[in-house]
Sequence to fold (726 residues):
Amino acid sequence: MTQHRLSHLAALESESIHIIREVVAEFRNPVMLYSIGKDSSVMLHLARKAFYPSPLPFPLLHVDTGYKFQEMITFRDEYTKSIGARLIVHRNEEAIAQGAHPIKLGVGRCCGALKTTALLQALEKYGFDAAFGGARRDEERSRAKERIFSFRDEFGQWDPRNQRPELWNLYNGRIHEGESVRVFPLSNWTEMDVWEYILEQKIPIVPLYFAKPREVIKRGNMLIPAEGAQALEGEKVETVTCRFRTLGCSPCTGAVYSDATTLEEIVRESALATRSERETRIIDHGASSMEDKKKEGYF
Amino acid sequence: MNSVLFNSSSELLRFATAGSVDDGKSTLIGRLLVDCKGVFEDQLQSVQNYHERKGGKGVDLALLTDGLQAEREQGITIDVAYRYFATPKRKFIIADTPGHEQYTRNMVTGASTAALTIVLIDARKGILTQSRRHAYIAHLLQIPHVVVAINKMDLVDYSQEVYETIRTNFLKFTESLNIPNLYFIPISALEGDMVVTRGDKMNWYTGETLLGTLESISVDNGLVEKPLRFPVQLVNRPQSEDLHDFRGYMGKIESGEVRVGDEVTVLPSGLRSKIKEIVTFDGNLDHAFAPQSVTLTLKDEIDIPRGEMLVASNQPAQVAREFEARLCWLDKASLQLQKKYFLKHTTNTVKAVVTELQYQVDINTLEHNSEVHELHTNEIGRVRIKVQQPLIFDAYVDNRATGSFILIDADTNNTVAAGLIQRPELA
Fold:
């Protein structure tokens, strides 16, 4: 009998592959949002599995804020090239030229300009009608109510009170001209599932996830990487053995103390973690910032 | 959580919870998450901070599951939310549905993928209209396991008599519903008794705790033993030099299993062929089973577009343009007979009209009302449907995946109804 049981990872994998294929079957011009992080890496891996032996039937889109770690950009370019994926990089050049920065604009407005607006610009520029995102429902409270096929109006906005009911595995992908759908194939995965799957499938990830001595600034509970931040008065740059649990923009992503240098050690550390991964992301800590950002069109 | 390490062979159990306002559902889920360490310290802290700002003390477990700003302000829960936790034995996905006026719609949505549902009853109030509705929906959706959690036992002195009375009444009500596995558990979500740990107040109860039940019920849904159903999602044609002639059918095995060499029938054409390869990214397989997603190639060159289905030749599915179904109406705009809807069923979307509304089910009394001419939001009715192209289906009671469909309004594109196909011989 045991050979007729799928492990939870195999069951999640199959569900995600089914979702990704449904999108390709029902939409004219889908795109996969690729943020270079571990969730994106898993989603991309699942997409490759879904269409094998054919190549990926859609491009990848990286919304680049200009504040991503250099190691992320290097990894992005090498990995996407090695698997033969088509990569589109989009930046909100106007906002970047105006010097958008979280300290200058505030985190909310900076994210709004460099991520949300940039994403909406790119979707419109290329006419994408469906965009895959690697968000998980366990990440943050407002995500727990997100559909797998999440409908967006012609302004790219999300209305949490007016979502389409989603029953069985029957996804409603019908939209009018100008409307679009965000699709979350990893909705039912947890952080633990993602790490276990990366380990099981040997999926390459950005080296920033592994611990090593790095130059950081200690600020409150956070370890801010020196790469994108300036030391304020009373702060100094120190070398600390640390790693990143999630990857975002360098000024807004904190590292955690860690000695985990292998995937096995990361899985162990994640299983024992007592604090959530989003804690190191500055954007989540407003009263309900993720919910507000999502309504405006953020992932 | 330590023992969860590397246990990637653990199984997944999806379950649904629903409850009325104030029956302690959010507290129960909060309790499961906290006691199984499905909540991180910083999340707990942020909830506690919020609660204390509002003048409360300590942690209000219910706040952990109230996700949206609007909900926290109004103290209500909107729509279905999904929660995740794991124990060393299993991974759990909870579809958490609120109990207010959209109860039926949300409950049907949340329960549609569940293998188990928890009916929460306030021990002080006993069985309410919503408990009955809940049991009926579990029956309608054929959920194999129903747990009746009799909550707030701390407020009735942990009385065995209260528990027994509710149990007897519930069994009486569900006699006609044929729920295959029914469990009754007395709990106090607030104090924690019989949720994760037994506590010391209800030694008269000898059954499993709630978590013990969730961990031990069989998750084998018998899918693999059912006849093969493989709806084609897409055709895989790389058309590269080395794979010039490759033509694979991509899809998820909804039920049954396939082996290389097996004969299969293509519906609706009825053409037969044999499985040549079971292709996956990780290499070809000799054998695959539900619910795996794979790519199949056949020995014969047959053109099989999306929406058609490979089935076991000895037990094919039905092919018809008319059938009867039960509809749970989800939309604000009521059902209109003879209006054109889109019907999505497996990987197939066709135009459909509802030709007849035979009766509406009174979900509180289970009586059939054949005098009705309309079906409104949250109502369940028995209908006759006609589709433009033949549908390849089974009855819902025989196969959840090939017996379920949704109706989509052709103007608004809203998902307006959930449908469950009836067995023709019972029609």
User: Anything to note?
Assistant: Chain A has two domains: 2-194+287-296, 207-284. The longest strand of chain A covers residues 212-219.
